[in-house]
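For the sake of transparency, this paper describes our internal protein records without simplification. An entry from our holdings is shown next, in its original layout:
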Amino acid sequence: QGRPIRVDGIKPLAFGQILAGAPSPVLRTGGVKAGQINISAQPQSPIILQLTLPAAMTGPLGATLPITFGANDAGFSAQGAIGNQTAFDPRASAVFITNSQNGRGSVYLGGTAQPAFNQPPGTYTGVITLTVAYP
């Protein structure tokens, strides 16, 4: 239906340095650390957003770092503005309308890293997948 959908990762969700045993939240409105994915589709068209989220990030020697996502940890903006989002639960699919003039929109993502008290130091990564489709 309509124009092909294009999805571009702009910024990864980044927790930065965290302390062992201390949860580290990133807000979807947190400009520096929040993840951002831009979408281009048919103007003024409904699109279905479905995020596939990891339960943990993987680090040195196979160590894992749990990550959680809450009901308001994702947001969609048809204007592509971090300060103008409609919150949604990233654990469930959601339907939004693209920008009426250019068919664009942005998804913003936050979450919480849950390090253990004995969390091994190092770099941890995980994969987040966004699937976008016309209904």
Observations:
- The chain has a mean pLDDT of 96.
